[in-house]
Amino acid sequence: MRTARRAAALFLCLAALTGCKLVKTADEEKIAEANAFNPDRMVADIWSEKVVPFYETRSGKFPEVMALIASSPDQAGEKFGHKEKQGTAPWTYAVHVTGKIVAEEMKSRAAYVEVDVDNDGKGDLRVAWGPAVRGTALRDALSFVDFNSFKNQIEWAQFGKSFNTHMNATVLSKLPREGLTGKTLDAYGAFPLPSSGQLPQFVPAKISIGG
């Protein structure tokens, strides 16, 4: 009798749950994975359709941007740049660079070349060559990404790092790493407001090298 009662009670409990949708563990894992924060995927999804076109249309010519920075960094920022936070946050400028490579440093993982823009034989800026890329200039110059869209500072930082990772894989890794001095360079990208007396540290989003 007790066994029959227990079976009946179990049947009633199961019947009460028939209106509930049970999700298998594997399905739950797939849903969680799809909804998880993935900065690499986020950058890959916007790179070709939004990031590169932004720099192609927003960037100012390097000499013009530098001249405006010299007179008013804020005016230069309003015309060619962006900064996520008000106050002491520095501007990051979207710039189009054309010039001749006059120096190259490829021994470091954070390799770079120096580019002469005004034909005086001296480097006017340093262009990141990877594979390690410092800073978050590519993220910071974009006007269509917003810190407030992210959960916290950690996610925001990871998002910025993913720009460098994606750019290195799709742009810098395809470039030569020797015999660069004397070649011409054409690039779109960004650099943060440089310290006094320091060369701008430019990170490309699109780049081509000519003979």
Please tell me about this protein's structure.
The chain has one domain: OB fold (Dihydrolipoamide Acetyltransferase, E2P). The protein has helices at residues 2-16, 25-35, 39-58, 62-71, 73-80, 137-140, 153-170; strands spanning 60-61, 81-82, 92-105, 110-116, 125-131, 184-192, 201-210. It is an alpha+beta fold and 211 residues long. The longest helix has 20 residues, at 39-58. A five-stranded mixed β-barrel has the order 3-4-5-7-6. The model has no long low-confidence stretch (mean pLDDT 89).
Outline, from the CA principal axes?
globular
Mean pLDDT: 89
CATH architecture: Beta Barrel
Helix count equals 7
Largest sheet: 5 strands, mixed, barrel
* Gyration radius, in Å: 26 Å
Q: What low-confidence regions span 5 or more consecutive residues with pLDDT below 50?
A: none
Can you summarize this structure?
The protein is an alpha+beta fold and 211 residues long.
